[in-house]
């Protein structure tokens, strides 16, 4: 599985992907085991969106399993503990030129982490 990160570089939203380097090592039972390493030098970075204006708004909001009934503890404070997150909200504000029309566009979506879902 690759390692993926999303980050802002100025007003560009970028995605970095690192494919693992797999090394076989001898294990204690006389067999071999795979060791996965993610070397940042092999990261491939691409631009996903330009003109992002999230100066004061985070790109990502994280929510625990008690959301939406618990709005006191949600969204989680960042950096959030990944084991607590059950829902991720992605909120992107874009505007080619904030000083001219059209106004800022909002791109907003939420993703429930399916493998952690407990309310079937």
Task: Explain the overall architecture.
The protein is an all-beta fold and 120 residues long. The chain has strands spanning 3-9, 12-18, 21-26, 32-37, 44-49, 60-63, 87-94, 105-112. It has no helices and eight strands. Strand 1 and strand 2 form a beta hairpin. The two termini are 26 Å apart. The mean pLDDT is 90.
Q: Percent of residues in helical segments?
A: under 10%
Q: Could you give the distance between the termini?
A: 26 Å
Strand segment tally = 8
- Radius of gyration, rounded? 19 Å
Element order: H for helix, E for strand: EEEEEEEE
Tally of DSSP helical segments: 0
The biggest sheet amounts to: 3 strands, antiparallel
What's the rounded overall pLDDT mean? Answer: 90
Structural class: mainly beta
General form: flat
Strand content: 35-45%
| Strand order in the sheet with the most strands | 1-2-5
Q: Low-confidence parts lasting 5 or more residues at pLDDT below 50?
A: none
Ordered list of secondary-structure elements with their pairings:
Layout: E1 3-9, E2 12-18, E3 21-26, E4 32-37, E5 44-49, E6 60-63, E7 87-94, E8 105-112
Antiparallel strand pairs: 1-2, 2-5, 3-4, 6-7, 7-8
Summed up:
This protein is 0% helix and 43% strand. With 120 residues, the chain is mainly beta.
Keywords for this entry:
single chain; 120 residues; mainly beta; three-stranded antiparallel β-sheet; 8 strands; 0% helix; 43% strand
């Amino acid at each position: 599985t690759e390692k993926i990160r999303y980050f802002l570089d100025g007003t560009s939203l970028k995605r970095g992907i690192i494919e693992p380097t797999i090394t076989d090592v001898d294990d204690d039972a006389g067999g071999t085991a795979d060791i996965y390493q993610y070397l940042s030098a092999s990261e491939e970075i691409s631009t996903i969106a330009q003109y992002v204006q999230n100066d004061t708004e985070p790109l990502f909001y994280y929510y625990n399993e008690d959301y939406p009934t618990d709005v006191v503890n949600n969204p989680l404070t960042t950096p959030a503990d990944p084991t607590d997150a059950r829902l991720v909200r992605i909120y992107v504000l874009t505007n080619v030129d904030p000083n001219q029309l059209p106004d800022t566009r909002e791109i907003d979506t939420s993703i429930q982490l399916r493998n952690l879902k407990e309310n079937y």
